[in-house]
C-alpha cells in the first residue's frame, strides 16, 4: 500500500531527529513542541503547520524543502546558475554598447566630412 505524503513527511521528521541523535524530550526543550504532539507528527496522525515545520528544520538542521517533499533543492546551484546568466547578459550588453559607440563614431565622422567643391571642367 502506498504511503501518503503525510506519512512520508512523518518518517522524514523521525529520521531527521534520530540522525541528530535527539530524544523527543530534547526536541521539546529546544522547540517547545510537546513530545505527545511530536509522536503524532512522526506517526502521521497530525499535520504540523508551517511555523512548526520551520522549528523542526532549524532544530534538525535540514531544509523545509526536504521535510515537506523529500528533495533538497540546492539554492547554491540555483544562485550559481543565476549569476552565470547575469554575467552572460552583461557580456551581451557590453558588446552591444561597444557596437553602438562604433556606429555613433561612424555617423559623426560622416557628418563632419564635407565633400570638396566640385569643379566645373566643361565651361
SSE diagram, text form:
Elements lengths: L4 H15 L4 H8 L3 H8 L7 H11 L3 H6 L5 H38 L11
Kindly describe this structure.
The protein is mainly α and 123 residues long. It folds into two domains: 5-69, 434 Repressor (Amino-terminal Domain), CATH 1.10.260.40; 74-106. The chain is built from six helices and no strands. The chain has helices at residues 5-19, 24-31, 35-42, 50-60, 64-69, 75-112. It is rod-shaped. This is Helix-turn-helix transcriptional regulator. Pfam families: HTH_19. Residues 13-67 form the HTH cro/C1-type domain. InterPro entries: Cro/C1-type_HTH, Lambda_DNA-bd_dom_sf.
Largest beta sheet, briefly?
A: none
Helices and strands, in order, run as HHHHHH
- Structural classification: mainly alpha
- The CATH topology label of the largest domain is 434 Repressor (Amino-terminal Domain)
Quickly count the domains.
2
Instruction: List the total number of helices.
Output: 6
Strand content: under 5%
CATH superfamily heading of the largest domain: lambda repressor-like DNA-binding domains
> Tell me, what is the CATH class of the largest domain?
Mainly Alpha
How many DSSP E strands? 0
Low-confidence regions: none
Calculate Rg over CA atoms.
Answer: 33 Å
CATH architecture heading of the largest domain: Orthogonal Bundle
| Percent helix | 55-70%
Protein name: Helix-turn-helix transcriptional regulator
Pfam families: HTH_19
Domain HTH cro/C1-type: 13-67
Organism: Paenibacillus dokdonensis
Amino acid at each position: 500500500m502506498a504511503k501518503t505524503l503525510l506519512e512520508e513527511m512523518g518518517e522524514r521528521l523521525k529520521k531527521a531527529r534520530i540522525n541528530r541523535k535527539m530524544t523527543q524530550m530534547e526536541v521539546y526543550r529546544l522547540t517547545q513542541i510537546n513530545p505527545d504532539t511530536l509522536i503524532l507528527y512522526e506517526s502521521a496522525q497530525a499535520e504540523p503547520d508551517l511555523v512548526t515545520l520551520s522549528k523542526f528544520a532549524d532544530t534538525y538542521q535540514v531544509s523545509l524543502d526536504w521535510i515537506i517533499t523529500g528533495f533538497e533543492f540546492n539554492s547554491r546551484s540555483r544562485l550559481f546558475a543565476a549569476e552565470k546568466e547575469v554575467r552572460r547578459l552583461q557580456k551581451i550588453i557590453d558588446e552591444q554598447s561597444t557596437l553602438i559607440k562604433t556606429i555613433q563614431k561612424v555617423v559623426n565622422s560622416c557628418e563632419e566630412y564635407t565633400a570638396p567643391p566640385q569643379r566645373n571642367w566643361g565651361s
